[in-house]
Amino acid sequence: MAESVHRDVTASGVRLRVAERGEGPSIVLLHGLFVDHTTWDGVVDGLSGEFHLVAPDLPGFGESEKPSPMRFPYGVDAFAEAIADLHAGLGLGRVAVVGHGLGGAVAITLAARHAELVSHLVLVDSLCFAAALGLERTLIQLPLAGSFAFRQLWGRAAFHALFRNRMLAATSTVPAARIDYYYDVFNTPAARGSAFATLRSTLDPRPVEARTSRVKTPTLVVWGRRDRVYPAAFGQRLARRIRDAGFELLDTAHCPQEERPREVALVIGRFLRAERPTLK
């Protein structure tokens, strides 16, 4: 199987690392918090024989540039505009966009604001509705102490606990080494600062929810039945908010692309071939 090609592209004044693989109709894959474009590796493996996969690291994440919040206004709106600029930089035109978690909120915003860029929309356990706060979001609301704890004290054990206790199913076979990789990428002052600014900006997701009524793009909502971050009922609610959206429920927690990448690839491929399931 061909390896992904990596290159740097400037979008919204920020250097983005982009992985590309395969030939055919293009799909842009947008990752969520605390991970990077490699979260899609298994999905890319399943789709690259038929599609051209484009997986960027969002500004401040992975191997992309991590500007200070004074230079880049971390948040869903800024990420969406950076992805719109990336479309232009790569000459992608109108393509399918897949987003998980934070990346789903970015995808919703992109489809609402730049419908001419999005041919199909797939939302995987997407940030959209207010949910119970986890430790990481509780920390950032504490004046001064929260910032210090998040930037200086939130260590490897707590990071593993976030994945094992909330983001992945108890039966998940995702190896500890993969979580270690995500922690090592996160564990720099610049990356922690970017994650902190992003978390602060996404505490109130109501602007994302409001944009769902403006999405006219053919849409599929994919959700993990055992998601402890955003319950499966959120996925059903989101599918009802977007006109004629399909809905697919998988036997995973918050990260289907990590736990069952081949199944996610099959679902996306089927949807893009117009075999869309209906909301149940």
Provide a descriptive summary of the structure in words.
The chain has an 8-stranded mixed β-sheet, sandwiched between helices. The chain is globular and about 45 Å long. With 280 residues, the protein is of the alpha/beta class. The model is unreliable at 275-280 (pLDDT under 50). It has helices spanning 41-47, 76-90, 102-113, 135-139, 145-153, 156-167, 176-186, 189-201, 206-211, 232-241, 256-259, 261-272; strands spanning 5-11, 14-21, 26-30, 52-56, 95-100, 118-124, 219-224, 246-250. It is 41% helix and 18% strand. The longest helix has 15 residues, at 76-90. It has a single domain (5-133, 204-272), classed as Rossmann fold. The chain has 12 helices and 8 strands.
